[in-house]
Design goal:
By secondary structure, the protein is mainly α. It is built from 11 helices and 2 strands; from the N terminus they run ββααααααααααα. The protein has one domain. Helices cover about 70% and strands about 5% of the residues. Helix 6 runs parallel beside helix 9. It is globular and about 50 Å long.
């Protein structure tokens, strides 16, 4: 999610307007989401582990006999419903995230065969992590709304006043344990992804961010934060999350 702070209104800004550079932003948004699904498929086919949220998606898929993409979409919808009591407001990027990534991962899995050689599996895993960082920076950089999982995290940060690191860690530990108990794959890729995705996105985000006029940045303010103390924490949370791209899993 791209977060900006307006010092005058003291609002957290979710930039969802398409009045500025719509073609560039839409192309980058959907390219990023498709690449995100492809990166997920590469990690799955490596059979060396998957991203933290995909441990849950994979576990649920195996229990219900559904495709990974279908479960990704269904979980995204459920997480989006959790935004309602948190008073989070989705953007075009949020809704697109729910649908496009699920479709893309299923399409990529249909085209990719699992490699047998360990070197090829490692290459799949490394390529998946690197491509995921590019995809995350691409879709965050267009400033059209966070993914549902990122929005859940930031909503909880706003409501609880907790740190981004604490809330994110609690969510991801919960989904990883739940997914593992359901049969999801927890492996070296899961750990490597958790350790590397933040620094990678931090380096890529400035290169893929689309600059917008200040007038557009103020066009779609979200609900005001009720207390200045919490507002200060929310600002800090947004800055830290943009720097580290925290999840969702940028999703």
């Amino acid at each position: 999610m791209a977060c900006l702070h307006d010092a005058n209104s003291r609002h957290t800004i979710d930039v969802a307007s398409l009045r500025s550079r719509p073609v560039r932003r839409l192309l980058q948004l959907y390219a990023g989401l498709v690449l995100y699904g492809v990166s997920m498929a590469l990690m799955v086919r490596s059979e060396l582990g998957v991203m933290p949220w995909d441990v849950l998606h994979q576990g649920v898929a195996r229990q219900l006999g559904l495709s990974l993409g279908t479960v990704t979409i269904l979980v995204g919808i459920l997480v989006l419903l959790a935004w309602v009591p948190l008073r989070q407001r989705p953007g075009l990027g949020t809704v697109s995230n729910v649908v496009v990534i699920g479709l893309a991962v299923d399409a990529a899995l249909a085209l990719l065969e699992p490699p047998s050689a360990l070197s090829a599996r490692v290459l799949f895993a490394a390529s998946g992590i690197a491509l995921n960082a590019v995809a995350t920076a691409a879709y965050i950089g267009v400033q059209l709304g966070p993914g549902p999982r990122d929005g859940l995290m930031t909503g909880l940060v706003r409501r609880t006043g907790g740190s981004v690191r604490l809330v994110r860690t609690a969510i991801e530990v919960a989904v990883v344990i739940s997914g593992w108990l359901l049969g999801g794959t927890l492996g070296l890729v899961t750990v490597a992804y958790a350790l590397s995705i933040g620094p990678l996105v931090h380096q890529l985000l400035p290169r893929l961010s689309v600059p917008l006029p200040l007038a557009d940045e103020r066009a779609t303010p979200t609900a005001a934060v009720p207390k200045p103390r919490v507002a200060a924490r929310s600002r800090s949370a947004c800055e830290r999350r943009s720097a580290a791209s925290a999840g969702s899993t940028p999703r």
